Amino acid sequence: MGVLLPQDCVEWWAPRDLHCLVCGEVPPGPLIFWQGATGALVLCPDDAAYLGAHLIGDAREATLASGRERHWAARATRAAVAAIEQRQRSR
Ligand SMILES: [Zn+2]
Prior knowledge:
Number of strands: 3
Mean pLDDT: 90
Largest sheet: 3 strands, antiparallel
Oligomer: single chain
Bound molecules: zinc ion
């Protein structure tokens, strides 16, 4: 992942499609650019920060759901039970 400056957009290695994955716009300033195994990902800076934070949370949730991190299971269970109890009290 890196930053694609406006003057770099014409380079051979720059992605042809400069539309942000999240908002669909082509921002005039620097872009966040990530070349993956199946193609390029382009994001404007605000959406890169938004997506990055949500990816971290989703990755954490997926790891907890997989049961691979046993030491987190009790903590996740307590949080889930507390959320369920709070929802039941608010009804
Ligand atoms: Zn965007």
